[in-house]
Amino acid sequence: MRSIVPENIQEHSLQVAVIAHALALIGNEFFEGRLDAGQVACLALYHDAGEVIIGDLPTPVKYFNPQIKQSYGEIETVAKDKLLSLLPAQLAQHYQGLFFPGEGKEKQLVKAADKISAYIKCLEEAAAGNGEFSQAQQALAAEVDTYRHLPEVAYFLDNFLASFQLTLDEMN
Fold it and tell me: What mean pLDDT do residues 35-40 have?
């Protein structure tokens, strides 16, 4: 989609890492979590690493049907494996778990942070007058809501999401 506010994979990954880190801290401080917030942030930094090679597909294409979703997942795996193969074995072993995290709470928080970041992007585009993101904004709002069962996500959405729409003057 045409963006008024440019964004690249580095910026997106950093924002996902910042949000995921905050989610882990919220979970630890308010909901008796025991996550390594630094590890969660690191997982988020690398969550789209394969896109360095293959780029990103628009969400409506990526999730058009189960076969495309599965095929794209396989392509992402090949891309991540390729990146790992470019590293010395001593380093690749450290990145393996970042590129292919298990199915734990850490991964859930990174997925939630990724969706929140995409939703924030839609809010920014809407605020800049770009109506092209309106359907994506609605879809992502619903998808973000599916993560409300995680208390740290609900807390973040209720307490911090609105601040992403403030201007500098409104922050003072």
Answer: 97
